Amino acid sequence: MCGIVGYIGHRDAFPIVIKGLQRLEYRGYDSAGIALFDGNNINLSKTKGKVEDLKDKSKEISLAGTLGIGHTRWATHGVPNDVNSHPHYSNSGDLVIIHNGIIENYESIKKALQNRDYTFKSDTDTEVLVNLIEEVQKTEGVKLGKAVQIALNQVVGAYAIAVFDKKKPDEIVVAKLGSPLAIGVGEDEFFIASDASPFIEFTNNAIYLEDEEMAIVRLGKEIKLRKIKNDAVAYPNILELQMNLEEIEKGGYDHFMLKEIYEQPRAIMDTYRGRLLADQGIIRMAGIDQNIEKFVNANRIIIVACGTSWHAGLVAEYIFEDLARIPVEVEYASEFRYRNPVITDKDVLIAISQSGETADTLAAIKLAKEKGAFVFGVCNVVGSSIARESDAGAYTHAGPEIGVASTKAFTTQITVLTLIALKLAKEKGEFSGSKFHEYLTELETIPAKVEKALKSNDLVETVAEVYKDSTNCLYLGRGYNFPVALEGALKLKEISYIHAEGYPAAEMKHGPIALIDEQMPVFVIATKKGHYEKVVSNIQEIKSRKGKIIAIVTEGDVQVKELADHVIEIPETLESLTPLLTTIPLQLLSYHIAVMRNCNVDQPRNLAKSVTVE
Ligand code: F6R
């Protein structure tokens, strides 16, 4: 949460920082700010609202300067307003800071500083940190880098910071613990950002700071990293980035979410490319191959994740148990980390995360590792904290997901987890050769089938028109499609602000059926191979109470068509692969309803893409 950008070099910093903030706006967008240094003066502009508002407001300041830092905020301490927006000055006005994270002990530090006559304009923890750095500079008589290090050893919390000192015009000091920070290394110029997207058109070379590392980014000097705790020198690993500019732009779509929905055939194919060799009857995944004994001999697999990734974990529970016959528990990372779970060295923990930065998931991994479990990460963002913290892992290769509502991350996570389950099923002898082959060849047809499912877009739009003003919706599914019902409801509520709930279809009669009347749209996943007859009975129960039924059915369905108010068809596939298809019309539906309600599809209120606070 919160995006940070910095630049120091020979170009004008303003356009680089502003564009970078726009690319990072998915991380938080309740306020934004920028500070530019022209060699003599710091010019600072900040405002509640979006980066576009900041661009307008910045017309009031001089935009000169080849050093700049900027911030887009998701508020933690202090309401979103101009004053609480970053950057923050120190009391002398010499230091300026941007910060992504939380300083937990800021109140006690603030009191101590107030006792030494420091004053504060904002309610933020960040303003406390910059003044603590200034106080260290004064009392210890040290330069900025050292002062940052000493100050950070006094704080408890998480941070990715960039800070500069008017008296040191050729450097920016950066540090990281818990929140991501990348340094783009160009020719005589450096870029600082929460991820590489702000600098991808300038350089492919990036250094990702590890936790508890800091760096002085100084013009004309090579970057040296230091450990914040003990000042040990760390040697930077300069990575060559694979990302390209097209991937992070809208490419003619009105919204990133729609682009990402339509990218799914390609994304799923990229996920299994080089791994799924159907003609040879092989699944090749280095992270599994090298640790196959751990998986096969595991007492159980524990899956931890949050939000949409947790839903992918629930789908995986069905697949792993059904195909590989390994017991699976799926946990919200936030609950798991605090409930003193029983974990042993015979457990395998799979952490699923698109961003690879979700604080609760990261903490769950650390806990499991401490207790001896083997940790396997399923992440989309290469080099992310969860990817690095895991013992082994598999990337989803979905490409950057920028829309805050997760779409292609979900289907590619399911794809990776299906590959793992199939591989383990084969290894354990749960599958005959022909059954295994059937799965592999069917999985290869999924991108084309997703393409076909996307053709329902116009029909889905007409359904969206009918239900766009609903105040409540129910989503029902059974078996493999129960998690899809949960995911469908989450998608609708997060981007259109309509209250929606997902349920296992059979649970209706244990309570929720009381909600059914002629005002209640019920989205039912009723595909042929998923407990079809039972779901048909559930549909009948809704119909007899006058609920409106919108059913996702298999191509050629007759029975449900007669009962439902609307049906949306998806191609036929194996039962365990249906979530990859049934989720498509539900994503499109949420998208269209949100657009029709004039909601900000890519940046829904109160949310952020990367939840780096607990
Ligand atoms: C929903 C959504 C969130 C995320 C959740 C976990 O559309 O995007 O629920 O799925 O915050 O994020 P990751 O997968 O990055 O750990």
Kindly describe this structure.
The chain has 20 helices and 27 strands. The protein has 614 residues and is α/β, with parallel strands linked by helices. The protein has three domains: 3-246, Aminohydrolase, N-terminal nucleophile (Ntn) domain (Glutamine Phosphoribosylpyrophosphate, subunit 1, domain 1, 4-Layer Sandwich); 250-449, Glucose-6-phosphate isomerase like protein, domain 1 (Rossmann fold, 3-Layer(aba) Sandwich); 455-604, Rossmann fold (3-Layer(aba) Sandwich), CATH 3.40.50. The protein has an eight-stranded antiparallel β-sheet with strand order 3-2-4-1-10-9-11-15, with helices on one face. A seven-stranded antiparallel β-sheet has the order 5-6-7-8-12-13-14. Helix 12 links the parallel strand 20 and strand 21 (374-379). The termini are close together. The relative contact order is 0.09. The mean pLDDT is 94. Fructose -6-phosphate binds at residues 306-309, 353-355, 358, 361, 405-406, 490, 494, 611. Fructose -6-phosphate is lined by residues 306-309, 353-355, 358, 361, 405-406, 490, 494, 611.
CATH architecture of the largest domain: 4-Layer Sandwich
Residue windows where pLDDT falls under 50 for at least 5 positions: none
| Helix-strand category | alpha/beta
Number of domains: 3
Please report the number of helical segments.
20
Distance between the termini: 10 Å
The number of E-state strands comes to 27
- Indicate the percent of residues in helices: 25-40%
Main sheet strand line-up: 3-2-4-1-10-9-11-15
Q: Which small-molecule species are bound to the chains here?
A: fructose -6-phosphate
Radius of gyration, in angstroms, nearest whole number = 25 Å
CATH fold name of the largest domain, please?
Glutamine Phosphoribosylpyrophosphate, subunit 1, domain 1
Anisotropy-based shape: globular
Mean pLDDT: 94
Largest sheet: 8 strands, antiparallel
Please identify which CATH superfamily of the largest domain we are dealing with.
Aminohydrolase, N-terminal nucleophile (Ntn) domain
The fraction of residues assigned to DSSP E strands is 15-25%
